[in-house]
Write a structure and sequence with these properties.
Strand content: 25-35%
Distance between the termini: 19 Å
Oligomer: single chain
Shape: globular
Low-confidence stretches: 133-139
Mean pLDDT: 90
Length: about 140
């Protein structure tokens, strides 16, 4: 399958509350808006991905689903969001797999995992691949 684009799709219980949360509290940039005033939709940038709020949901999010957002400074973002009243599930800590993580929730209870990759983590170490973007012949 050749995937041309992708996004995370959320059907919030209250569109206006979720929109304010993701746009104003979290601080995500708007990619596009669509729909009508009665049935609005909005798409936010989340790093190299997209997050869409549209439709209407009644059920609470599954505990098996989380939104992971990688940030540059976990402590600063966690402190800012906690100070804005965002409910905290887990305080920042280094996990056994080496990442720094904290978990909060959105207005519908969806867990948002904030992640920072420490300087000494293998994801930051050189893979031996050229940084120029050039590929070897035959790749």
């Amino acid at each position: 399958m050749e995937v041309l684009a992708s996004r995370v799709l959320l059907h919030p219980r209250d569109h206006d509350v979720s929109r304010r949360f993701y746009e104003e509290t979290v601080g995500l940039g708007v990619f596009r808006e669509f729909g009508t005033p009665e049935h609005p939709g909005i798409v936010f940038f989340i790093g190299s991905g997209l997050l869409e709020l549209s439709g209407h949901g009644e059920a609470a999010p599954s505990a098996a689903t989380r939104l992971l957002l990688q940030v540059r400074d976990l402590d600063a973002e966690f402190t800012r969001l906690r100070g804005a009243g965002v409910p905290v599930v887990d305080e920042p800590e280094r996990k056994p797999w080496g990442l720094l993580e904290a978990t909060l929730t959105d207005p519908d209870g969806l867990q948002i995992v904030l992640v920072q990759i420490p300087e000494d983590h293998p994801q930051r170490l050189s893979t031996g691949m050229p940084l120029t973007g050039e590929r070897a012949a035959g790749d």
